[in-house]
Amino acid sequence: MQTSIEQTRDRGNFTDLCVLLVEDDEIMRMSLADRLQLESIPVRAVADTASARKELKKGGIDLVVTDILLPDGTGIELFSDISHNFPGIPVILMTAYGDISDAVATVKAGALDYLTKPFDINDFIQSVTHQLSSIADIQLIASDAGEEIIHFKPGSGCLGKSSAMRKIERLVARLKESDSSVLLTGESGVGKEVVANLIHQNSLRSQGPMVSVNCAALPSTLIESELFGHEKGAFTGATHQRKGFFEQAQGGTIFLDEIAEVSPDIQVKLLRVLQEREFQRVGGSIPVPLDVRVIAATQVNLDESIEKNEFRSDLYWRLNVIKIDIPPLRQRREDIVYLARQFVSRLVQSKQGAVKGLSKEAEFYLQSMTYPGNVRELKNIIERAVVFCDGPWISENDLSITEHKVLENDATTLKESIEAAERKSITRALAENHGKINQTADSLGISRKNLWQKMKRYGIGK
Asked: Which of 300, 303, 205 is nearest to 255 (CA)?
């Protein structure tokens, strides 16, 4: 019979992952580090938060295990620092009995787990390997068409390099063993379906179907039949039994996009299905058991819809077990060039064209644009630019052909207007000076240090 450690080890190979162990007690630090190495888990072991921060800056850390009480601070402070400066790196806390309340509060704030000292070293290894297993061997369908499979680690930047998107990746990773309903909110084009695909591919249902339904595109007269199917003879034209989207998704996930567009009578039926976990085909009398994970999405403020009696509050709370709000692209501008480069790479590979990538001037120009259509709009801009590009590098002119506006009137306050104008001036100056910092700073009449600070603030040139 296998031990729990042997069973855990069988779940994955962690030799390409690294644990940062932060423990001031030398004997315990050495003991835990030795056991991790015995389990073929790479580890860097340090005694204080200052050393931990140095290791984090070096990169290559996939999981942090830290004591709460440390000589120069606390593990809770270190967790806060990681959340802000190294988003995506999960944290496990080790705590004495008297500090459990602090550990619990930190777990609620986003830490993965905590271990109470003294603990069995096998429990320690099991906790570490369990968390590493959620990082390793995760696959997702990242493209809209679903033909591209990418391996990623939560927080590594699969959805974007901004802290907001890396936090979403971490949240998705924590949903791996959950079957709860998820509500995705955000403007049109932010990537709600991409996140839904990621949730499905990272779930225990990944081997089952992923069925996407655009509720707004379903005719009101046929929506019930489309969702739940119908029996032969249920209505004129029903010449045979048909499985609806819910039945097609059995064993997998159903993604209900634009859920706010569903009519009140269908909302009632959806509520009953989610409550009773069964449905009936139109014209049928036999309940069909439901084995489906539901992910819904909307760009509408459902709280306002509930106040207007346009959306049922009871259905809202059935869907809103886990809520993920995806910010618009203009609020995570560090993702613009990051995503644009990915789009260019995929288009070049698929079309085998002569385009090598984006010029520096083009990247600065992209950062000066406004994106009311969010990531979908950015993708379209890049696709057109690849078509129009005559040389090996996409230029600013190739992008301007797409007739998109730079940031101008999308600000709503004086502060936002000033920031938009400043961002536009900086990106334009960088493009004119071919990205050279000293020349750009001189042309703007500011110091090199001031320019770097402003570029960092606005997410320019990263």
From this structure: 205
Q: pLDDT by residue (tens digit) across 18-36?
A: 999 999 999 999 999 999 9
What are 151-199's pLDDT values in tens digits? 455 655 678 878 788 778 878 877 877 888 999 999 999 999 999 998 9
The identity of residue 131, as a single letter, is Q
The mean per-residue pLDDT over the stretch 302-321 comes to 93
Instruction: Say whether pTM exceeds 0.85.
Output: no
Query: Could you tell me the pLDDT band of residue 318, with boundaries at 50, 70 and 90?
Result: very high
* 143-327 has CATH 3.40.50.300 classification: yes
Q: CATH for 330-458? A: 1.10.8.60
Give the C-alpha separation, 211 to 246, whole Å. 8
Which stretches within 368-436 are classed as H helix?
374-388, 396-400, 414-432
Distance CA 341, CA 150 (A): 16
Beta strand spans in 117-223 (E) = 138-141, 149-152, 182-185, 210-214
